[in-house]
Design brief:
mainly alpha; 2 helices; about 70% helix; about 0% strand; membrane; transmembrane; transmembrane helix; MFS_trans_sf
Length: about 80
């Protein structure tokens, strides 16, 4: 019985954290789509520019890391 209760508390946050990622993919597809396709245009991995998408994710992670460092330095002042 404990396993079912624990699982019921785990599933909703896991599903909610995928929403921003889906929105990011939709935003990147909308911004980069053009007549030549875009970063995530087709199901063809040879034509898509997944490298640029992963560079974007790396940049967002770096921004998040610096945000963490800033908040950890100023944590005592808040």
């Amino acid at each position: 019985m404990n396993t079912r209760i624990t699982t019921s508390f785990h599933i909703p946050p896991a599903s909610l954290q995928s929403i921003p990622y889906i929105l990011l993919i939709s935003l990147v597809h909308k911004i980069t789509s053009s007549s030549s396709g875009g970063w995530l245009s087709d199901n063809d991995l040879n034509k898509d520019r997944l490298d640029l998408f992963y560079w974007l994710l790396a940049a967002l992670s770096l921004i998040n890391f610096f945000n963490y460092l800033f908040c950890s330095k100023c944590g005592g002042a808040i």
